[in-house]
Amino acid sequence: MAYTYSQVTASNGVVLHTIKTSPNSVYMKALPGGSTIANQSTDGINGSFFDFSSSALLTIAVNNDVPVGGSKGSYGSGYENAKYARGTLVWDSREGEFSVQVVSSAASLAVVNRHQYWAQGGISMGLNNESGWAAQADKENMPNRTGNAERAGLVYNTGKNIWLVVTNTKCSAAQFRSAIKEKVGSGTLVNGIFLDGSGSAQMRAGTPKATGDSRKVFSMVALR
């Protein structure tokens, strides 16, 4: 697998761990029974929001229209953004295009071929919407947007690269977003999503680089 790992510190003090790679090297992976990312043999970062008690995936996690955690009709399978329409990062491999689409179900995603895409649900980052991104994040029911917490996200640029980004610096969503805009993509970023944060913000890039609080998570954005 080809990727570039970097650790950078933004002017606001937020330390970012980043993996830059091709979207064709990315896939969504379920972690049945739960696992830390550090204990995986696969590199990547934490993925969907999940229910601690049931391990149900609460945001979309699909490969080629197949949810990673069960069947399309089952709760917690990764085919739906539970309760809320939420920002979902889509790589349409047939079209060769990224998008962030606000949907409740993967069935509503606009893609050229439903068997040639992946999608990960989260919260819209709105990198091109300085005045409105926070209101949109609140509309999507982002947990703890203004509090200090560890954070994770996915962003992409005009060159069709994707960055998997984690910080174990406790910061607000605005500070995390600002650090990404400053330090990732050299001004070429287009958009992205926030992923699950707090102790779930974990990354593995060869050896563990960001561990959160070492809690178990139930899905990841993984690298081939």
What does this structure look like?
By secondary structure, the chain is mostly beta strands. Helices cover 8% and strands 41% of the residues. The protein is built from 2 helices and 16 strands. It has helices at residues 133-139, 173-183, and strands spanning 3-9, 15-21, 26-35, 44-46, 61-63, 66-67, 86-92, 97-103, 117-121, 123-124, 149-157, 162-171, 189-194, 203-205, 207-210, 217-223. The chain has a 6-stranded antiparallel sheet. Strand 7 and strand 8 (97-103) form a beta hairpin. The longest helix is centred in the C-terminal third of the chain and has 11 residues, at 173-183. The N and C termini lie close together (6 Å). The mean pLDDT is 96.
Tags for this model:
single chain; 224 residues; six-stranded antiparallel sheet; five-stranded antiparallel sheet
Helix content: under 10%
List the helices and strands in order.
EEEEEEEEEEHEEHEEEE
Give the number of DSSP strands: 16
Looking across the biggest beta sheet, what order are the strands in?
1-2-12-11-13-10
- Ends apart, CA distance between termini: 6 Å
Radius of gyration: 15 Å
Low-confidence stretches: none
- Overall 3D shape: globular
What is the strand content?
A: 35-45%
Q: Please summarize the sheet with the most strands.
A: 6 strands, antiparallel
Helical stretch count?
2
The residue-averaged pLDDT reads: 96
- Going by helix content, strand content and strand pairing, the class is mainly beta
SSE layout and pairings?
Blueprint (H helix, E strand, L loop, with lengths): L2 E7 L5 E7 L4 E10 L8 E3 L14 E3 L2 E2 L18 E7 L4 E7 L13 E5 L1 E2 L8 H7 L9 E9 L4 E10 L1 H11 L5 E6 L8 E3 L1 E4 L6 E7 L1
Antiparallel strand pairs: 1-2, 2-12, 3-16, 4-14, 4-16, 5-6, 5-9, 7-8, 7-9, 10-13, 11-12, 11-13, 14-15
